[in-house]
Model the fold of this input.
Amino acid sequence: MRKVFFFGTAVLLAAGLTAAWIWLLLVPAQPQIVQAGQTVEIENTTWHLDLLREVTLDDEALSDSVIDEIDGATYILAQFTFSGTEPLPYCSGTLLGADREWTWQTVYPLSDAMSSNCADSTAATVQMVFTIPPTAVGEISGVELRFGDSLIRLDGRVS
Amino acid sequence: MLFTWVGRYGALLVSSQVATRSAYLVIVVLSVGLLVQVSMIVLALRKVGDLVGWRVTGDERQGALRVIESALLPFLGIYVSFGYISDYVSNLLFLIQEQSDFSTLAMFLSTMNPTQSTTRLWIVLGVLVLLYVVGHLLNWAREKTSASWLSLVSAVVTAGGTFLGLLSVFRIWEQVSLWFQGRKIAGAKDIVLGWMSDLFHIDFPEILAEAWGFFTDTIWPAFWTLLVHPLVWFALAMVVAGSRFIQVESLVDKVVHPPRSKVANFVRLDIQDRVLGDLDVKVFPILHALRRMWKATLPFIGAYILVFTGLTWLGESLEALAWRWIGMRTSDQMMVAVPLVDLILAVLIMSLKLALLVVAVRRADELAAVSEDENHTSLLNGVIIVGLCFVMAVLNVVTAPGSVTVSAAQVGSSVTLMGAQVVATDAEVATSVTSGAAENLTDLRFVVVHVTAYSPYDTVILSATLTAGGHTYGTYDDDELLTTTPGFLSERDYIFEVGVADLAGPVSLEVRPRTSLTAQVEVARFHLTPDITGSGGRAIEATSRTTMRVP
Done:
């Protein structure tokens, strides 16, 4: 009886663990989805997607940027208004296409040369630049932001 | 063994969930997970040992907690020495990255990076000192009381120190190492080697590199993993079986007379406790087991090592077959299957090894009980058996189940790697390569191959090496990556500096994807036909920088 109990416990634990493992890895984290123009509040921060537009490398908004020029490429600028109780050291941005995505190329403002801060103050304008092929502009549906445990999707079309 | 597996992957799963909240909590979870794993192995050994009738040679039959306590530190020693703990940490880092993204992983690692700021350095050093003090206080309390559970907590603290070292303190060593490499003394080594080459007209760096490569790739894995590994497991099984032995400390007490001065005696005892205490709990059980095995005759040792190594080989082969059958390629797909595939080694093969261990311990006890005259084995037989074991170990390393699938590719034709279409041109050979304003010259030959890669949907990272005359060359500037971005065509020149004689034989470029986890790696091998005629003095333009364009 004792053997059956131990064996049963081990098998149940193993099955539960396997299920949790597969669920956590296969079921993607569900982002908090925000419609275009709305503000999202999450983890003591608020985010608003101000701009999602096509830019050229001589655009005024990108005057400080260091972006590799690619023949025939299209550059998309995503600009957010961030506010939080403290600056945000890390975040990552992904531009969402139909069945593909592009990671951000640069994040501004950079508080100093060595910093990779996402938002260097409690109230900041965060800019991300994405480089995509021109044929992909029509398929862009928004930007996904990740910081810490939080994942938010800010819907929007390229203007 | 299933409980051990649950302890391992349960701790990994919980750690990956708490990693973004507190990096130090991860160390606690991993340490507790390690304690669960080790305890389960010890209890399983004891349980199976009882079934085959282990004769306990100690003073009395010890309780389960006492057995775990006595075997815990040697087990931790094994786990560190044979890479179990570093594998454990690697899996955690992969898991964090797969569940979130690289920025989360970077944030987790940066929290414990002592070189990032003075505050973090002090925090890490403070935690280390705290672990050291708490560990010693627990050991002291354990000596004063009979509470075995204190040893378990002490082991968790010791494991915590090891994890902190692997996740954090190694960066200090890394910084020291980088600083040293930039000093003049590091260059002196090359000067001495060059001087010896001139003196004896022998290419010392080449010979040393070959010898070192053979030693690290073949001899050392064969010796360490396949010969020492089974013996150390045997030693631990003996500790669990309850075999007693004289402690080194008590031997020293008998031989060394204490100094008259109280202060000198205190210092002696303190040093003795620190140095020999560690030997007693981590090293001496292994030496003792070797002595007992020797008594049990060399054929026994040889047979035991052969079966243990056979089981290891069987497990690795089954694991390779499983990966081949599952057919996964990307890291995120693989990470899902890692715990399931690990059931082969962690549960099936480990159970068989435990059965082998308990039977081996029992047989060793029986053989040790027989008088030495009856048990005599000639030295020649012993040497032959140990030699056979070593040959088998080397064969095992050389014929280890491969995880690489190589497909031959034609120059100028497209081959698909992880969804990316890769094309390589034929090689150009020159003695001068101009990249922008910079000109690089060589007395050997530069071999330049232009590679393009295109993936419509994924980001794929590729790397390349050149094989010529039996040698494998890395790129001239050590930058070997070519990364694709969805919808763009990425291209670059791969530049290799190659000996002229090596270009006389077959030359090939191997392009492979870079993934954090690699079960089945697809490699494209482009057979090149470099024209070396008149290459001396030839100059070509090339750039190893990746450029992108819209196809």
In short: The beta strands of chain A are 32-34, 39-42, 45-55, 74-84, 92-96, 101-103, 106-108, 123-132, 142-147, 150-155.
